[in-house]
Structures are given as C-alpha cells and as structure tokens.
C-alpha cells in the first residue's frame, strides 16, 4: 500500500452549497438537518438558524391551537378585518374621485335590487361622502372585528360579515313601501354588517361568561339614534343586520363542540336561504311596475 509522501496536501474538499440554490456557497448549516443554508433560506431559531424546509416541516407537525369556539389561534394581524377596512376605504375614495358615479353603480335601493341583486352586498362597501360616516363604521369594525375573527375563525367571520351586510339590505327592502319614496331611496354604508357584528359579539361574550353590558348599551344607543328625525340613517339596515348577527352568533357560539362544523354550516346556509326567500317573497308581492326602471 502506497503512503502519501510527507508534506503532500490533502485533496481539496468541495465548498458546501445550499441545496435549494446550488450556485450559492454557504458555510452556515441548519441546526436541525445539518444541511447548508444560504441567507435566503435561513430562518432564525432558538439556537442558530434553520432552513426553510425544516421550518415548514415543523409547522406541519405542530398541533394548531383553537379558541373555545373553534377558531384557529393565529399570530399577527387580523387579515380579514384589515381587508374589509381597506375595501371600504378604497371604495370611499373612488366615490370621491368619480363624482358620485361609483356610488350610483353600487348603491342599493329596493326598486333596483331585483334587476341588479349584486347591490344588496356592494352597498355595504359604500358610504356617504362625509368623513364621519365611514370613520364611525370603520372604528366599530376595528373594535369588534379582530376579536370575532380570532374567536370564530376567518371562514365563519367572513360568513357573518357578508350575511349581516346582506341582511341590512334585506331589512331595507322588507320595510320599504312601494307606494312611497322609501322604495326609490338609495342606501349605502357598512352599518348593517357592523350591527351584525354587534349582535354576534353580544352572544359570544355571554357564551364566554364575560360582561356584555357595554355592547348592549352600544346597540341600544345606535338603534335609538336611527329613529331620531333628520339623522338620515337607514335604521332598517341596522335591524336587518342585527337580526342576522344574533342568529349566527347564537349558532356559532352555542354549537356543540362535537358537531360544531355541522352546526356552523347549517345555520349559515339557513340564514342565507332565509334572506333569499324573504327577498323573493317581497318582490313577488309588489306590482311589476314598481320594480322596473
């Protein structure tokens, strides 16, 4: 057996490269799998760094923590609430820059809802051009939305908000008289959806054993304001959204744990079907001349 001569250098070892980016040399290794990780693939760990693959694998194996009502506990920002606020603010800015054209295309009025049903929902993303209307609704959404989004989970929170918004428009429709100006008056605002959140958070707080007095007072004050002459507030939308929020809040908050998904889906579908049925019944009871341009 031949022996290397004294002083002969060892063969050079290849430089370690990142498995995800073979063109990048990295002497930093993942503390979990030991593979090299380039700066783009490094993630801070309790000790040293881990590669993105190990972080992703670890996230899959960690059990998700749920709230008492079945919502997934998530860190970070309330994504759904912030998205709704962004949509409302963006829509309000379009109302200002288009000189009312955006409002005319999306606002809801009973006489036009049958031929353009999308207005039942789009009106909830519009507001009057005065700043106080949108400020109040967005503030109310901000103080209730993140809590409900966390407790119920994103899917049920979206269902609650959308159906409460629809419930507000349906409330306006049901209480409008085709023989009066109320049939042709356009309404805008997220108030119906916000009142739906008020109703839901009231039931959620009671389910959790927390004091709901402040929410009750807030609901009472805002309902009363809608009946003050000259306020130009669609109290019908408030009542419609509140009714939807109370029903969904009860269904989501008091669903048996073993059948929570079935109950949640069931009450959501039931409310959606009821809103459609009430809308169809109202329009079918009105003479055709009242629902056309």
From TrEMBL:
Q: Identify the domain of life.
A: Bacteria
List the membrane topology term(s).
Multi-pass membrane protein
Q: Where in the cell is it found?
A: Membrane
**Which family does the UniProt entry place this protein in?**
Belongs to the peptidase S54 family.
Record domain Peptidase S54 rhomboid: where: 116-252
* Protein name per its UniProtKB record: Rhomboid family intramembrane serine protease
**Sorted alphabetically, which Gene3D superfamilies does this protein's record hold?**
Rhomboid-like
- List the keywords (alphabetical): Hydrolase, Membrane, Protease, Transmembrane, Transmembrane helix
> Where is it predominantly found?
membrane
List the Gene Ontology MF annotations in alphabetical order.
Answer: peptidase activity
| InterPro entries assigned | Peptidase_S54_rhomboid_dom, Rhomboid-like_sf, Rhomboid_protease_S54
**Spans traversing the lipid bilayer:** 118-143, 155-176, 182-205, 212-229, 235-255, 262-281
A GO BP term here is:
proteolysis
């Amino acid at each position: 057996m031949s022996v290397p001569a004294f002083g002969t250098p060892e063969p050079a070892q290849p430089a370690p490269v990142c498995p995800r980016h073979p063109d990048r040399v990295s002497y930093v290794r993942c503390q979990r799998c030991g593979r090299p990780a380039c700066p783009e693939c490094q993630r801070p760990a309790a000790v040293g760094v881990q590669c993105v693959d190990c972080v992703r694998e670890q996230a899959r194996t960690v059990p998700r923590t749920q709230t008492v009502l079945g919502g997934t506990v998530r860190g970070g920002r309330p994504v759904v609430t912030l998205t709704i606020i962004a949509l409302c603010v963006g829509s309000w800015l379009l109302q200002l820059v288009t000189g009312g054209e955006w409002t005319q295309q999306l606002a809801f009025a009973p006489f036009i809802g049958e031929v353009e049903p999308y207005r039942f929902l789009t009106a909830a993303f519009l507001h009057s051009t005065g700043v106080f209307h949108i400020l109040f609704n967005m503030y109310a959404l901000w103080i209730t939305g993140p809590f409900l989004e966390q407790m119920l989970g994103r899917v049920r929170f979206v269902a609650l908000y959308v159906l409460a918004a629809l419930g507000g428009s349906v409330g306006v429709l049901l209480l409008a008289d085709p023989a009066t100006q109320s049939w042709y008056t356009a309404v805008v605002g997220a108030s119906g959806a916000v009142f739906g959140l008020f109703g839901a958070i009231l039931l959620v707080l009671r389910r959790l054993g927390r004091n709901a007095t402040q929410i009750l007072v807030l609901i009472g004050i805002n309902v009363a304001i809608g009946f003050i002459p000259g306020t130009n507030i669609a109290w019908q939308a408030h009542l419609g959204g509140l009714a939807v929020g109370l029903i969904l809040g009860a269904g989501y908050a008091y669903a048996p744990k073993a059948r929570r998904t079935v109950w949640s889906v069931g009450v959501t579908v039931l409310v959606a079907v009821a809103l459609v049925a009430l809308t169809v019944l109202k329009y079918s009871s009105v003479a055709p001349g009242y629902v056309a341009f």
